Model the fold of this input.
Amino acid sequence: MAEPGGGSRSPGASVRPAHSDASADARRPADQRIRAAFVTACHLDVDTPKPGNVSADSEGHGMSAAQFIASAEAAADALLAPGAPVGQRLLDAVTRTRATVGCNTNLGILLLVAPLAVALEEAARPLSAQTWQAATERVLARLDIEDARLAYRAIGLANPGGLGDAPEQSVHDAPTVGLRNAMVLAAGRDSIARQYAEGFRDIFETGLAALRELTAGQPGTAAPSAAAATAFVAGRVAARVTAPAAASNNTPDTAPATTPDAALATTQGAALNVFLTFLAAWPDSHILRKHGAAVAQSVTLAARAQHAHWRSALRETGPAAARAPLDVWDAELKAAAINPGTSADLTVATLFVALCLDEPGNASATERAPEA
Done:
């Protein structure tokens, strides 16, 4: 299969009003709490300056933060449509995205969240990372050729930059195997395909572990749950949307950080730590497709050094000084048209999972109101 992430986040037209597709499933209302978790995760993607990525503070690659936020709003109901299969969610969500922004801003995110969303409907409650991952594995195991056919159509419609061909199960041809089997063929060269092949292990293990590092090393403090670590994030995004003036006067980002861990536990720090963890762990698939193995590996090595320096600087000089080298690197990457888009997609999926988990002390998106 040609790489499914396919160079997501490619430039195109400006934002246009959303357009409804013809799918009956996509017209069914999504659970508003789950929808809010998804949109919040997408807001965080652009609310957090991440090296090489588009953000509210640093546009690039011919795209703006507004396009990403509009894409999330446009795709959410189709992606989270109750009862819809994975392939249908993908096609409907891509259709709505294209109708709204006219370009591919979120294919990787949609490919990651679709099976997670189906599994979310089936997983036992209270929802833990373990029960959700087990439900995701069951969803992946039953993906069929119809899911593959619809997913191929979605990928073709998104038309991601850098989408190549493959000797087997190319997205340019009709599939002859189920969607998971097709993804397995690409798993060795694409991180999103690897999630389908390996049960989203990188999300549930690597990504959530990066969130749980927020209080690592602080004496007498237990590491928070992944959802608790991101709970403040939802509040900041909601405050910024509903009351910009209030949000600008008193937000976690502007509050003084009294410890290195408090500095890390900010809206930017939470997402940035996950992003840098992914980018430093293996070559970014988007960079690999667009620029080749040597460039992708060089960015991975640089990410390891940048991540270590950032963590050290948080302890020694505080968040503002810690960010300065990342801002320089961001400008360098964008000047070279290098966008770690797959690492950002994995970050969004991790944040979505974290915001939905039922964990002690967390009012998660999946809690249900008592029956009347």
About this structure: The domain at 29-238+261-358 is CATH 1.10.4200.10 (Triphosphoribosyl-dephospho-CoA protein).
